[in-house]
Structures are given as structure tokens and as C-alpha cells.
Give the backbone structure.
Amino acid sequence: MDGSKSRIDPQDTVVLFADLQAGIVELSKTMPMDRLKKGVLALAKLAKLFDMPAVVSGIAGEDGSPAKVLPEIGDGLGTLPTHHRTTCDSFLNSDICSAIESTGRRTLLIAGVATELAVQLPALTAADLGYKVHVVMDACGGMSERTEEAALQRMIHAGVTPVSVMTLAGELAGELTTPRAQQAVGILYSMAGS
């Protein structure tokens, strides 16, 4: 499926986990915390299974302490550095932008809280830079249904595509008789059963 405009090629994909940290994830009003954590863990597992690099961004505490990211990211992917952002748009931080660009991949999956800010702004910038951008909705949380919907509409109009972890698992699985596909299906079922 080389050259597909609608499909996700894991060999061309990088994942951005944005602001999935203590003090922020609790603000989500559109995704219950347990469901958000399951979505983040499932996405992290898919990233590892399909060799998709991941970048974690967060905000340092007022006292300079590092962001306390959800442990589900590490549970799925192992230890990753947290790139602390100083602007609302991760793509406007040179450290984060460099980490994404250094992968050489042009498809970006974004998960995070809040959809209206930490997800929307880098999604728009990445789309403007020519990335094929997908927002993983069951690994995101918004401040309200109304404001999250406004953010989604803006992103869609900019060419960003919403997707779910379940869809990703099924799409990336490919031929279902392979061991890797069976692992992806297991991740799909773990989401469906929650």
C-alpha cells in the first residue's frame, strides 16, 4: 500500500504523547481516566509492536520538577525521555521538533490532554509542515465536549484525521495469521473489552 493517502504505514510513523502527565490528565472531561489510560497503554504497545518511535512531551512543574508522565507509556514502550515544552505547541519547541524530525518519518500520531491545546496545536503545525497527522481519540481527553469538538473540526479542516486505537490495531495488523498480527488483535480486544 505504498503511497496511500489514507492508510497508516508504521514504517513512516512516529507517535507524540503530549502532556499525558499528573496534574493535566485529571482535567479531562471527555474521556474517563481509566479509559484514557487503557488507550495510552494500547497505543504505546502498538508503537512498540510495530517499531514506531515515540516522543513524549510535557510541562515541567512551577518549581522546575520534571513532568510525571503516565506510567502506561513506559509500561508499553519502556523508558523514554520527556521533552519539556515551553510553548503551547510542541512543534514550536526545537527539542521536541528535532526529536520528531530526527526519525525521518512523515506520519504523526498524536495522543494527549488537552485535545484543545496540547493535541490541536502541534497537529495543525505538523499538517502545515506536510506531515500526515492522525489524532488518536481514545488516547486523548478534552476540557469539554463542546471545546473538544471545536478543536476536532478545526483539525479536520486542516487535513488532520481522527483515528482510534482499535482502528490502528486492526489496520496495522494486516495478515491476521502472523504472530505480530495476533498481538495487535490482542491489543484491539483489550480496548474493546474495556
